[in-house]
């Protein structure tokens, strides 16, 4: 046994393990912690919305290329291209405002089939002779209040009456259309207010006022969904209502507020559509509910709730407006346009089913609700 001083052998410091996937993505070099974090975000759930939005922008580019190939005589003129882009945005403005409200409802785990009827009822009520006598302010106030009130009725029936959203809003669709027809006596009501009518014809810096209204609603919706407690609660309620309730969220009150928000958006859209047509009737905004739901699904919002983006829904609306415009400039029938839209909706739902199991979650929730 040696009495000499003991020595301690020290192993050389080892470097942190390198993720092969990150190394390959970085072109064969070991990725730094910052770049690895960005890569993991992009490929993970956090970047899913960005990837889908990028794909939707790619779809718009493809539609532009198709338009340029089929009508090169028009697309060769830059002035016409710019004017046509503004037409598409103007075409998407009313449906886009409705879609913002629909996005919140679907993220919250619901559905609203009555949005088109609410737009019609708000438009008809705001263009009665009595309402128009109060001027533009009275017409705008009436449309917004009617839309909000009908939305709150939907929310009350669903949240507190425990009706299935599909049934409650389907009944409201019929009732609101009937009430609009009763108020208008099945006649078209002309808007005599130049201020309201001017909303559709006014341009600011060369861009229609309707586009600015759409941008303002989208911006407000984005902030509400992504930067407020209301938005986080919406995602929580749509993802798992029972867990949200146990976490202290008043699920019933929040559901009521979601449908009220949808009705509020319908009231705004009613003024915009009335301005475009300079009139209102019980049949206006026909099938807007299908357009809004389709745009929300195309934009990546899960049909079962709990996930979705405002920007994705906006891109979905613009895609459908672009398809409509593309068919119009090529002289194709509305029937063919509807078939293409239907195919796009089916494809989007199938993609969701493969990626997230949306259909199984949707049916499971329905069993829990009706059980």
Automatic annotation (TrEMBL):
Ranges of compositional bias, category Low complexity: 20-34
Q: Where is the composition biased (Polar residues)?
A: 1-13
Query: Does Transmembrane helix appear among the keywords?
Result: yes
Record field: transmembrane: 50-69, 81-107, 113-131, 138-160, 166-183, 204-225, 256-275, 310-332
User: This protein's superkingdom?
Assistant: Bacteria
Q: Where is this region: Disordered?
A: 1-36
Mode of membrane association:
Multi-pass membrane protein
The identity of this protein, by name, is ABC transporter
Which Pfam families does the record match to this protein?
A: BPD_transp_2 (PF02653)
């Amino acid at each position: 046994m040696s009495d000499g001083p003991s020595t301690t052998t020290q192993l050389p410091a080892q470097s942190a393990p390198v993720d092969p996937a990150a190394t390959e993505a970085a072109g064969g070099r070991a990725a730094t912690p910052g770049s690895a974090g960005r890569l993991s975000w992009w490929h993970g759930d956090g970047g899913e919305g960005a990837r889908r939005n990028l794909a939707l922008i790619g779809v718009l580019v493809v539609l532009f290329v198709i338009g340029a190939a089929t009508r090169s005589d028009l697309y060769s003129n830059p002035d016409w291209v710019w004017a046509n882009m503004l037409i598409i945005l103007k075409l998407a403005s009313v449906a886009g405002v409705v879609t913002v409200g629909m996005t919140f409802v679907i993220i919250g785990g619901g559905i609203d089939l009555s949005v088109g009827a609410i737009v019609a009822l708000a438009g008809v009520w705001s263009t009665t002779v009595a309402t128009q006598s109060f001027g533009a302010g009275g017409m705008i106030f009436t449309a917004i209040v009617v839309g909000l009130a009908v939305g709150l009725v939907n929310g009350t029936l669903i949240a507190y009456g425990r009706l299935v959203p599909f049934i409650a809003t389907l009944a409201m669709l019929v009732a609101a259309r009937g009430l609009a027809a009763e108020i208008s006596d099945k006649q078209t009501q002309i808007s005599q207010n130049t201020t309201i009518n001017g909303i559709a014809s006014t341009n600011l810096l060369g861009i229609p006022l309707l586009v600015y209204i759409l941008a303002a609603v989208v911006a407000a919706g984005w902030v509400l969904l992504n930067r407020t407690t209301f938005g986080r609660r919406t995602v929580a309620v749509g993802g798992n209502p029972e867990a949200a309730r146990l976490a202290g969220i008043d699920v019933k009150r929040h559901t009521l507020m979601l449908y009220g928000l949808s009705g509020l958006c319908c009231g705004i859209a009613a003024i915009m559509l009335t301005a475009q047509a300079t009139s209102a009737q019980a049949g206006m905004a026909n099938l807007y509910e299908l357009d809004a739901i389709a745009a929300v699904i195309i934009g990546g919002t899960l049909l079962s709730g709990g996930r979705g983006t405002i920007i994705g829904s906006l891109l979905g609306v613009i895609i459908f407006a672009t398809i409509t415009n593309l068919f119009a400039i090529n002289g194709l029938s509305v029937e063919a346009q509807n078939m293409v839209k239907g195919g796009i909706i089916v494809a989007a739902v199938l993609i969701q089913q493969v990626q997230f199991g949306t259909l199984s979650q949707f049916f499971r929730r329905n069993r829990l609700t009706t059980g």
